Amino acid sequence: MTVMAYLREDKQKIEIDYPLEKVWAAIPEVVKTIEWTIEEKDDNLYKLKLKTKKGFVAYPSSVFVEVIAVDEPTTCVSINGETPVTTITSMADFGRTRDRIELFIEALAVQLDRAVQLEKQERRKKK
After folding, report:
1. What is the pTM of this model?
2. Over the stretch 8-57, which tens digit does the pLDDT of each residue have?
3. How many CB atoms lie within 10 A of CB 24?
4. Residue 105's closest CA among 85, 83, 69, 81?
5. Which contacts (CB < 8 Å, 24+ apart) does range 106-111 have?
6. What domains are defined for the chain?
7. How many CB atoms lie within 10 A of CB 105?
8. Cβ of 7: how many Cβ atoms within 10 Å?
């Protein structure tokens, strides 16, 4: 039996109302929270290559993240995911790349909200 492999790709681009520095600082915490790994990181270009955990009958995905400042309070985050798929795993993997991108976005939102709450607490303590 021949097993054919190919990459299943998915992309998402979002704009969020946080400055680039806050978004970039939040990403390592997001990666730790969702138990992925950072394979490559470019602090000058604000680009990352992440590796997800593998599933029961699924290969891990490579997730490429690029963070770009739109203006002072707004940042654009581009997320591209690639998951190797074989004829055997194609049904189990259907939609998995999209799910992993959505997991990253949700975890990023939670982390950014947490950072804002901590900043508010710090400001209250100083008053």
Report:
1. 0.83
2. 788 999 999 999 999 999 999 999 999 999 999 999 999 999 999 877 66
3. 19
4. 81
5. 107/30, 107/33, 107/34, 108/16, 108/23, 108/26, 108/27, 108/30, 108/77, 109/16, 110/33, 111/26, 111/29, 111/30, 111/33
6. 5-126 (3.30.530.20)
7. 16
8. 13
